[in-house]
Amino acid sequence: MYSHHQTKKIISLPKLLLTVIFLSTFLSYSFLTFNSESQEQTPADNQEQTPSESQEQTPSLAEKVFEKYQTFLQREDIKALLPVVLVEIKRPENQALLIPETINLVVDNPNLLKTFAPDIDDEFITLLEEDEEIKTFLRDPDVQSLLQDIDAIDELTELLRLAELSLAERVAETHAAVFEREDIRELLPSILATLRKQGIQDQITPELLKSVVTNPDTLKTIIPNIDERFITLLKEDMDVMTFIGNAEVQLLLQDREAIDELAIILNFNLVLPVTVKISPASVESPRRGEQLTITVDIVDGQDVQGYEGVLSFDSTALRFVSLEHGTYLQGELLSVPTPEVTDMVRFAQISVDTPAPTADGTLVTITFEVLSAKASELLLTDVIISKAAGVQLPVIIENAEITEPAIGPWDVNRDGNVNILDLTFVASHIGNDNAPPEADVNGDGTVNILDLTLVASHFGE
C-alpha cells in the first residue's frame, strides 16, 4: 500500500519521529496540566512491568522488537533512516519527552502535526495515515518502552548491524575469541575442510549436530579420523562447547559456501591434501610370463582439471605393456602420449573445460608383464594435481609393493617356474648325504625318487 510513497518515505520518516519529539515538548506540558494523573501513573506502570521483564531476559526487549519487526526494520527506507533517528532519540533532552501518550496521540491523529508544524508536507501526513506498518510499530508498547531505554536502543542497533552481515561474517564476529586461539587455528581448518566435502555434507543434519553437542563422539561417525584433541575440547572446553552449540554455527556447518566464506575471513586454508595412491598397495607377484595390472587412484580431489606423474618400477621384474586413462576427468580431454620406457612410465591428462565431478576415482590403469617373480616396489614421483588456472593442490603419495609369490618347495631354484632346471637339480643330488636342503623337496632328510616325483608332479607350474 505504501509502494507509491517509497521516495517520500526516505525523506519523510525522520521528520515523523523527530517531529514527534518536537511535538512532545508541547504536549508534555499539557499532560502535566490536564492529565497529570495519567503521567504519574506511567512510571508506576513501568515499574510494575520491570519484574516480569527481568524474569524474561530471553529474549531481551531489543530482541523481542527485532524478532517481531525484523521485516519492517529491514525495509530499504527504514534501514537508511533508522540509525540517524535512533541517535536523535538517545539525546537526553529527547528521551525525557518520548512518552507513550505523545506518540499514540500523533499516530492516532496525524493532522495534529499541522497545529505545531504548519509547513509540514501533506504527503508526510498521508504517509502516516496510510502506512500501517509504521503506525503498528509506533503503537507497540514494546517499541515505546525501547525508545525510552538507551541500552535497548543500542542493543537493537547492534542486532540490525549483525542482520546486515552474512552468516559467515556473523559467526566470525560472534566467536572471534575462539577463532583467535592457537589450538583452534591449528585444528579447525582440516575439520572444516572435511565437513565441506560433498559426501560429508550429505550426512550433516540438524539432528546430528544436536547430538554432537551432547555427545561429541558422534562426530566420529562422519569423520572417523578426526583429531582426538578436538573431541576433547568439545567435551571439556566451555568456549568450544558454546561454539558448537550455537544455532548459527550449526547452520554454517551445513552450508559449503558459508564454510568457504568463513575460511576466507579467518585466513584458513581449507584445501585437503589430495591422496594419489597405487592400488593394490601390496600384491603377490604373478608367475613369470603372466601380467600384473595396477591402478593409480585419487582420493579427496577438489575441482581437479589435470594430473601428471611418473610411476617407476623394477625393470628386471616387470616390463611395461600398456597404460589407459580412467574416467575421473570428463569433458574435452587432452592426454599426453606415453613415451617408450624401460623402468618408468609417465602419464598426464587435462580436461579443457570441466572439473572432475567427483572427489575420488581412477587416474590410470597400467599393465605389466612379469619377467621375474620376485619382490620389488612401485614408486610414484613428480605427481602434480591441478585445479583450473594452474592452481596446484597439495598431494600425499601412497606407493605399493610387489611381494615374492608363495613358492612351493618343488620350485627348487626359486625362479617362479617348475621346469627341467628343477628336475635336473634334484636328480643331481639323489643319494647324496650332503645334498643342499632345497633338494630334499618333501623334507624327510633324504634326497631320493620321492623328491624327484614331487617336482615332476608340479612340472609346468
Tell me what you see in this structure.
It is a single chain. This protein is α+β, with helices and mostly antiparallel strands and about 450 residues long. The protein folds into four domains: about 5-165, no CATH class; about 165-265, no CATH class; about 275-405, Immunoglobulin-like, CATH 2.60.40; about 405-460, Type 1 dockerin domain (Orthogonal Bundle). Helix content is about 50%, strand content about 15%. It is built from 23 helices and twelve strands. It has helices spanning about 5-35, 35-55, 60-70, 70-75, 75-90, 90-95, 100-110, 115, 120-130, 130-140, 140-145, 150-165, 165-175, 175-180, 180-195, 200, 205-215, 230-235, 240-245, 245-250, 255-265, 420-425, 450-455, and strands spanning about 275-280, 280-285, 290-300, 305-310, 320-325, 335, 345-350, 360-370, 375-385, 390-395, 395-400, 400-405. Strands 2, 4, 6, 7, 9, 10 and 12 form a seven-stranded mixed sheet that branches. The protein has a five-stranded mixed sheet with strand order 5-8-3-1-11, with no helix packed on it. β6 and β7 form a beta hairpin. α1 (about 5-35) runs parallel beside α5 and α22 packs antiparallel against α23. The longest helix has 29 residues, at about 5-35.
Summarize the structure in short.
This protein has 461 residues and is of the alpha+beta class. It has helices at 6-34, 36-55, 61-68, 70-73, 76-89, 92-95, 100-108, 113-116, 122-130, 132-139, 141-147, 150-163, 167-174, 176-179, 182-195, 198-201, 206-214, 228-236, 238-245, 247-252, 256-266, 420-427, 449-457; strands at residues 274-279, 282-284, 291-299, 306-312, 318-325, 333-335, 344-351, 361-370, 376-386, 392-393, 395-398, 400-403. Helix 3 (61-68) crosses helix 11 and helix 18 (228-236) packs across helix 19.
